[in-house]
Specification:
about 500 residues, Arc Repressor Mutant, subunit A, 4 domains, elongated
Length: about 500
């Protein structure tokens, strides 16, 4: 092929004439004055391989007008249609163009703009419900943008099919911010004489704006999913774990940064290979997965029972033997139960006393506790419990993580070691109650709310009382109890 310097600029019709000669030469195998653009030539090859007729190709209708409404409603681009309209429709209308939005399969879902242009477009299949992929109708901005996954402008005879040589169009793909997959395209189409080189930049900018809105909406959904499912992650305590979206994105993890931003989920099964981290388990959640690395279960013949919820005078039961504990020893057992892998003296000192904690004091307390229990039950290096631990606060947390709210409320007899001021115990106490309270209020079950109201921690919970008063009928005796309690509180103040 020989080369002309360039296509005519500022003359859409003259440009169209040159492109027509190029197309005829390429299709006939003769010498052309100009090589077609690479993206156009590759699209012609794909279209011809799909047996598109360059003279009489026509788009197929996939959806009728009744079907298109439901298809639109379920498509993710419906949420950003106002953004697309604000950015393009007024400009398209004024410039004798129309805005077209497709799905990832090239089906036209929306077609809006100048009425006369729309009527002309309908005559050649540029309307809702038609499929405009390359294999259906040859080279066109929408289909080629989807096939090449890049913005593209197709002018006149760059369309493979002759009947579309009177049109010029520019389109850009739009991507799902979660998976990165193409979910559709945005296109501006009009008569050949309206060609303008800036149209492609306008369409590309609009596509990026739509993707930014989709990312913002995704971030809001991610935050809501994190809030609803964080209890599952917290229930792992010090075990590595993560909350994943159905597509494998990591929403939250502990510890922070131990996983990449996205994991390739297996097509089947509940196991995933994490390389150096070993094999992890995927537990299905309503909105994704909980990933955890399972521990090898420790089987000990010795059972240590801890009843610390609402306990002013904590007691442990070891192999059936009741042991009265000092508050400090109860705090130590709480922390070791929460960290089955064990803690060093330095870590225990921080958990018990804060940054100024002294490991020497902790070692002395642990020595006395080992003597009170059994040296074989409380191991060293690091300090850990070598027993089957049955702790009421762990059982409540596990019930919450599994969604067994009634069981959790039944098991919650009060605050965890209410007299303790150890920072880590205080944090666990407040977190456990906050999760329980939030889940009960969210579910709105009258019986569970009444149970919760009977716990001393909730004696002055105005939100809980208000919600119960709204749902309890006037004839319910529980309502009278709540009203009387509120009256006493007001009088005491």
């Amino acid at each position: 092929m020989t080369f002309a310097p360039q296509l005519p600029t500022g003359d859409p019709v003259g440009r169209a004439r040159v492109l027509a000669t190029v197309r005829e030469a390429v299709l006939s195998g003769s010498e052309a004055v100009l090589r077609p653009r690479t993206i156009v030539y590759e699209s012609w090859r794909r279209s011809l391989a799909a047996r598109v007729d360059p003279e009489f190709g026509n788009p197929p209708q996939v959806y009728d007008r009744r079907e298109i409404t439901s298809v639109r409603a379920g498509h993710p681009l419906a949420s950003v249609l106002p953004v697309l309209r604000d950015s393009l429709v007024a400009i398209a209308d004024e410039a004798m163009h129309m805005m077209i939005v497709t799905d990832a399969e090239g089906h036209i879902l929306w077609c809006e703009g100048q009425a006369e242009v729309r009527r002309s477009g309908e005559q050649v299949g540029l309307t809702e419900g038609m499929r405009w992929t390359e294999d259906a109708v040859g080279t066109n901005a929408m289909g080629t943008a989807l096939a090449a996954d890049r913005p593209v402008q197709i002018h006149s005879a760059e369309h493979l099919v002759r009947r579309y040589h009177v049109w010029t169009c520019a389109a850009a793909p739009i991507h799902d911010p979660d998976t990165g997959a193409v979910i559709g395209s945005i296109d501006i189409t009009g008569p050949v004489r309206t060609f303008h080189p800036a149209t492609l930049a306008l369409v590309t900018t609009t596509a990026r704006l739509a993707e930014a809105h989709l990312r913002a909406a995704l971030a809001e959904r991610d935050e809501a999913v994190r809030n609803r499912n964080l209890t599952h992650l917290l229930a792992l305590r010090d075990e590595p774990g993560a909350l994943l979206t159905p597509s494998g994105r990591v929403l939250a993890s502990q510890p922070l940064g131990w996983l990449p931003e996205r994991l390739a989920l297996p097509p089947a099964g509940d196991r995933i290979d994490l390389g150096s981290h070993g094999e992890a388990v995927l537990e299905p959640l309503p909105e994704g997965f909980l990933l955890r690395i399972p521990r090898v279960p420790h089987r000990s013949a010795t059972t240590l029972a801890l009843k610390f919820l609402g306990a002013d005078r904590p007691v442990a039961r070891l192999a059936g033997r009741e042991i009265r504990l000092t508050l400090r020893h109860a705090e130590l057992l709480t922390l070791l139960a929460l960290h089955p892998a064990g803690l060093t003296a330095e870590q225990l000192a921080t958990e018990l006393y804060g940054p100024t904690g002294n490991p020497v004091s902790v070692r002395g307390e642990v020595h006395r506790l080992r003597a009170q229990l059994d040296p074989h039950v409380l191991r060293t290096q690091p300090y850990r419990l070598d027993a089957t631990v049955q702790a009421d606060f762990l059982q409540v947390r596990a019930a919450l993580a599994a969604g067994r709210l009634g069981e959790a409320v039944d098991g919650y007899r009060g605050a965890l070691l209410p007299r303790s001021e150890a920072p880590a115990v205080r944090d666990e106490r407040e977190e456990l109650f906050a999760i329980l309270r939030r889940m009960v209020l969210s579910r709105g079950d009258t019986h569970l709310m009444w149970q919760l109201a009977g716990i001393p921690d909730c004696a002055a919970d105005d939100e809980l009382t208000d919600k119960l008063l709204r749902v309890l009928p006037d004839t319910d005796p529980r309502r009278a109890v709540l009203v009387a309690g509120r009256a006493r509180s007001a009088k005491a103040e």
